[in-house]
Amino acid sequence: MSDTGSGSTTSDDEVLQRNGGKYVEPGGEFTRDQRYIATRITADGRDGYPVEPGRYRLAVSRACPWANRLIIVRRLLGLEEPISMAVAGPTHDKRSWTFDLDPDGRDPVLGVERLAESYFKRFPGYDRGITVPAIVDEPTGQVVTNDYAQMSLDLSTEWTAHHRPGAPDLYPDRLRAEIDEVNALVFKDVNNGVYRCGFAGSQEAYERAYRRLFERLDWLSDRLAGQRYLVGDTITEADVRLFTTLVRFDPVYHGHFKCNRQKLTEMPVLWAYARDLFQTPGFGDTIDFDHIKRHYYEVHRDINPTGVVPLGPDLANWLTPHGREELGGRPFGDGTPPPPPPAAERVDPAHTPLG
């Protein structure tokens, strides 16, 4: 099941590759290519890739909101040991994400400099975007899937035998229809809506996207004014998907993408909700604000030709009291918070207020 309810969606790095290094289609409205590698890793292995601890490597960038979802879900469910993680740098060119954060510029497990190498090992001549997140089969070095919307659901539903004790149920059976409905609305108008503003090629397209974005944010504010989480009284997949957009709103989307009716800090309900999640183990400890800002401002050169990265905003306010406990709810339901992230996966303390 995808964000839209009818198929997967592309991330902005695919747009860059498809358009020869440019994001904005002059005079037009931003649209997303819906073609993804739909192979699934399942408990029964029906696509040829069975759930198997130690076999797969999750390739991500901390800059990317779609990859950030997988990082959070993997943390919350305690899948760090069963599924290893490769972290690409915050920037890329039109060819591929690179593993430039590693000492020799190669992922130490896959042995590749660019994620594209894993795509081409399975699909020579692959002509779509080389996107993160992606899951790679370590024995063959071949990409398995980049269908990120399904990937996060499968971590919840197919990898249950390997969840940590106390892992939350992020996609409970009784709430799936409502979660899917909320996710579809949030994707259309918010997750993708900020890109529809930022990559709009005409005033008319921008204004349509801008109105849809803030109408949906107002709707979300009304919904969350009386309940702590989006669906039910615990954290679900719906909260993960909204959070990764909200946490990027003031550092990037407000200015860079012209989503400037208000900052997140000027929307009291959503700002408190975002801080509540940020301060919840498994959320804020995955956020690298430096990587986020560098990606958008350095890579989107047709929007920000100089590549200058802003110094602000101040991040200390992410740790201020939010008061959302008064609404009740139990973040992890009958479960428990995840332990701290493995030392090798901790965000640089200089890049987060949690440092």
UniProtKB/TrEMBL annotation:
Keywords: Transferase. PROSITE patterns: GST_CTER. GO terms for molecular function: glutathione transferase activity. SUPFAM superfamilies: GST C-terminal domain-like, Thioredoxin-like. Residues 172-299 form the GST C-terminal domain. Gene3D superfamilies: 1.20.1050.10, Glutaredoxin. The record marks 253, 296 as: Lowers pKa of active site Cys. GO terms for cellular component: cytoplasm. The active site is at 64 (nucleophile), 195 (proton donor/acceptor). Residues 1-10 have a biased composition (Low complexity). InterPro entries: Glutathione-S-Trfase_C-like, Glutathione-S-Trfase_C_sf, Glutathione_S-Trfase, Glutathione_S-Trfase_N, GST_Omega-like_C, GST_Omega/GSH, Thioredoxin-like_sf. It holds the Pfam family GST_C_2. Residues 1-27, 322-355 are annotated as: Disordered. Glutathione binds at residue 97. The keyword Transferase applies. This is Putative glutathione S-transferase. It comes from Micromonospora echinospora.
